[in-house]
Amino acid sequence: EPEVTQTPSHQVTQMGQEVILRCVPISNHLYFYWYRQILGQKVEFLVSFYNNEISEKSEIFDDQFSVERPDGSNFTLKIRSTKLEDSAMYFCASSIVKRGYNEQFFGPGTRLTVL
Amino acid sequence: AQTVTQSQPEMSVQEAETVTLSCTYDTSESNYYLFWYKQPPSRQMILVIRQEAYKQQNATENRFSVNFQKAAKSFSLKISDSQLGDTAMYFCAFMTDDYKLSFGAGTTVTVRA
């Protein structure tokens, strides 16, 4: 059964450094999402992406964040200058269509630790 | 803005028994969708069950069923005949036509042998 995959599973970085979190969505899916979950808190929507453009973004998704689909298979989330409060679990998700309800399939997550 | 509230941080149930998880939500939208996701200790979220708001009939998936009360904005999940593999965090989630999920805080379910 096809799955969303994410790499790395755990990333440790120093404050101020740039990180890139990678996701491989399910191959025939067209819509991609990033969510994050700070330890002990709710899963929060960050951004949705379709046709090489951001469709929606939350207020969390400020100028230090960017997303890209560089090669038709990967979907990346870049954090330019990490802060301590960026420490969280980051989940990628993908869905096939946007009509009606569409099941979003989640990856296993990348745990980002900012020191 | 939509809010989703799960008032039970933790639930414990004996194997083969039934457990019900509560979820309430707040929205002014008329067209929306509700979901329960399961997040086992491996941390990959899996869709358990979904409900379209325009459908009056409660959704059922094997041992999982929901009690959807639209007027009360309530969407509870019942797990029947609980199994050890049901041990996980369960998230209630809400989606409108903007296609972004809003999650509750989650309920940790522990199934005891």
Task: Give a written overview of the molecule.
Chain A is mainly β and 115 residues long. Chain A has strands at 5-7, 10-13, 19-24, 31-37, 43-50, 53-57, 65-68, 75-79, 88-95, 105-106, 110-114. In chain A, the strands form 2 sheets. In chain A, strands 2, 4, 5, 6, 9, 10 and 11 form a 7-stranded mixed beta sheet that branches. Chain A has a 4-stranded antiparallel beta sheet with strand order 1-3-8-7, with no helix packed on it. In chain A, a hairpin with a 5-residue loop joins strand 4 (31-37) and strand 5. The radius of gyration of chain A is 13 Å and the shape is globular. Chain B is mainly β and 113 residues long. In chain B, strands 2, 5, 6, 10, 11 and 12 form a 6-stranded mixed beta sheet that branches. A 4-stranded antiparallel beta sheet of chain B has the order 3-9-8-7, with no helix packed on it. Chain B has no helices and 12 strands. The mean pLDDT of chain B is 93. In chain B, 0% of the residues lie in helices and 51% in strands. The interface between A and B is medium-sized, with 26 and 21 residues.
